[in-house]
UniProtKB/TrEMBL annotation:
Protein's UniProt keywords contain Cell membrane: yes
Superkingdom to which the source organism belongs: Bacteria
Alphabetical list of Pfam families matching this protein: MFS_1 (PF07690)
Transmembrane segments: 20-42, 54-75, 108-127, 171-192, 227-249, 255-278, 290-311, 317-337, 349-375, 381-398
Subcellular location: Cell membrane
Record PANTHER family: INTEGRAL MEMBRANE EFFLUX PROTEIN-RELATED, MAJOR FACILITATOR SUPERFAMILY ASSOCIATED DOMAIN-CONTAINING PROTEIN
Protein name from the UniProt record: MFS transporter
Organism, scientific name: Streptomyces flavidovirens
Alphabetical list of InterPro entries matching this protein: MFS, MFS_trans_sf
Membrane topology listed for this record: Multi-pass membrane protein
Keyword Repeat: no
Length: 421
C-alpha cells in the first residue's frame, strides 16, 4: 500500500470538506454575477460592445488594486472570518443592485460599480481560499483535492450562466439579483464549521516586506514564473474572446440571454469531465506533459470552433469548442494549483498566491477592453479569429519551460530546484 493510499480521501478531511462545500456554492454565485453584469450592459442598459467590455473589466480591475493587500491580509487574519465576511458583503451588494435596478433601471455606472465591489471582495475570498487548501491536505492528496475543487468550479461555470440567463429572461433583474444574494448567503453558512491550523513558521514581518518576498520568490522560481506568465497570457486572450463572443451571440446571432448562458455553460461540461478525470488518474500522469500540452489543446479547440462557427452552424461549433477547451483547461488548472501549493513555502503561501494571482489575472481587464474594442471596430467574428489565433501561438511558449521535466507532483521541489535563478 502506498503512502497516498493510506491518506484519507480529501472529502473525509473536515477542513477541506468545509472549504470545498463553501467554494462550490460561492463559485455558483460569482459565476452568475460575472456572466450577468456585462449581459445587462448589452441588454437592459442598451450599451455598446465597448460598454460591455468596460463592465467586464471592472470586475477584474480589483485584482490589480487589491491582490497584494489580500495576500498580506491572509497571513494575519482568520481565514474563516475572511471567507464569511466576503460572502456576506457580496450578497449585500447583489441585493442592492436588485433594489436600485427595480426603482430606476440598471445604468452602466451602477453595473460598473457593482462589478468593482464584487470583484474586490472576490480577490480577498479567492486568495484566502487558495492559501487555505494546501494547509488542509497532505501533498499526496493535493491534486485529488484540487481536482474536486476544479470540478466544482466547472459546475459553477456551467450552472451559473445558464441559471442567471434563464432567471433574467423569465423573472427579471430584481429576482435574479435576489437569488444570487441568497447563494452567497448559503456559501457563508458552509464556511461556519471550518477549523484550520495556522501555518507553522508564519512570518511576523511587515506586510509590504512580506509581499515583496513572495513576489521575489515567485519570479526567481523558474517553474512558478513560467506558470504565472502563461496563465497571464491565457487570461488576457480568454477574456477578450468572451467579450467578443457576447457581442457576436447577442448582436450577430440574435440569441436570447438564456441561450447565451447555455452555450457558455456547456463549455464547463468538458471542464467537469477533465477535472474529475485528472483528479482520479493524477498519480499516473506525467505532470510536465499534462501542463505544457493542455493549454495548446485548449487554444486550438477555440480557434477551430470559431472558424467553423463563421462558415457553418455557429451554435454547435461554439458549444463543441467550449467543451473541448474546458476539458483541456481543467487539466492545466488542477496541476497549476497543485504545483503552486507545494512549491511555495508554507509561511509564504498567502503572498505567493497573491503575487501569482496579481500577475496572472491583471491582464483580464485589458483583455475585456481589447475584446470589446476589436468587436466594435473589426466586427465580433473577425475579433474572435484574431484572438484565438494569437492565443494558439502564445500557448506554444510553455513547451520551452523546464516544467516539462517534472514527472510527479509529490516531490516537484526536488525536480525543479535547478530552475531557480
Amino acid at each position: 500500500m502506498t503512502t497516498t493510499e493510506r491518506l484519507p480521501s480529501p472529502l473525509r478531511v473536515p477542513a477541506f470538506r468545509s472549504l470545498w462545500l463553501g467554494e462550490t456554492v460561492a463559485g455558483l454565485g460569482f459565476q452568475s454575477t460575472q456572466f450577468l453584469l456585462p449581459l445587462l450592459a448589452l441588454t437592459a442598459a442598451g450599451s455598446s460592445a465597448t460598454g460591455a467590455g468596460l463592465v467586464s473589466a471592472a470586475q477584474f480591475v480589483p485584482v490589480i488594486v487589491f491582490s497584494l493587500v489580500a495576500g498580506a491580509t491572509v497571513g494575519r487574519v482568520s481565514v474563516k472570518a475572511l471567507l464569511i465576511t466576503c460572502n456576506v458583503l457580496r450578497g449585500l451588494t447583489m441585493g442592492v443592485l436588485g433594489i436600485v435596478a427595480h426603482a430606476a433601471g440598471p445604468g452602466i455606472g451602477l453595473l460598473m460599480a457593482v462589478a468593482f465591489v464584487v470583484g474586490a471582495l472576490t480577490v480577498f475570498h479567492d486568495i484566502g481560499h487558495q492559501a487555505a487548501v494546501p494547509h488542509s491536505l497532505a501533498a499526496g492528496r493535493l491534486t485529488e483535492g484540487n481536482g474536486l475543487l476544479e470540478a466544482s468550479y466547472s459546475v459553477a461555470q456551467m450552472a451559473g450562466p445558464a441559471v442567471a440567463g434563464y432567471t433574467l429572461q423569465e423573472f427579471g433583474l430584481p429576482a435574479t439579483a435576489a437569488a444570487t444574494a441568497v447563494v452567497f448567503t448559503v456559501a457563508l453558512l458552509c464556511f461556519l464549521p471550518l477549523r484550520l491550523t495556522p501555518a507553522a513558521g508564519a512570518e511576523a514581518t511587515p506586510a509590504l516586506r512580506s509581499v515583496l518576498k513572495g513576489l521575489r520568490f515567485t519570479w526567481r522560481h523558474r517553474a512558478l514564473r513560467d506558470l504565472c506568465v502563461q496563465s497571464a497570457l491565457f487570461n488576457l486572450h480568454e477574456q477578450a474572446l468572451i467579450t467578443a463572443f457576447m457581442v457576436f451571440a447577442v448582436r450577430s446571432l440574435g440569441l436570447s440571454s438564456g441561450m447565451v448562458g447555455v452555450i457558455v455553460g456547456l463549455g464547463s461540461v468538458g471542464a467537469l469531465a477533465g477535472s474529475l478525470w485528472v483528479g482520479r488518474y493524477a498519480a499516473r500522469l506525467h505532470v510536465g506533459a499534462a501542463v505544457t500540452w493542455s493549454l495548446t489543446v485548449s487554444a486550438l479547440s477555440l480557434l477551430a470552433g470559431v472558424l467553423l462557427a463563421l462558415t457553418g452552424p455557429a451554435v454547435p461549433a461554439l458549444a463543441g469548442a467550449f467543451v473541448v477547451n474546458g476539458l483541456a483547461l481543467a487539466v492545466y488548472n488542477v496541476y497549476a494549483l497543485s504545483l503552486r501549493g507545494v512549491l511555495a513555502p508554507p509561511e509564504r503561501l498567502g503572498v505567493v498566491m497573491a503575487g501569482y494571482r496579481l500577475v496572472s489575472m491583471a491582464p483580464i481587464p485589458l483583455g475585456a477592453v481589447i475584446g470589446g474594442a476589436l468587436a466594435q471596430s473589426a466586427g465580433p467574428g473577425a475579433a474572435m479569429v484574431v484572438i484565438t489565433a494569437s492565443l494558439t501561438l502564445a500557448s506554444f511558449a510553455l513547451r520551452r519551460s523546464p516544467l516539462r521535466r517534472i514527472r510527479r507532483l509529490t516531490d516537484p521541489a526536488a525536480e525543479s530546484s535547478l530552475e531557480r535563478r
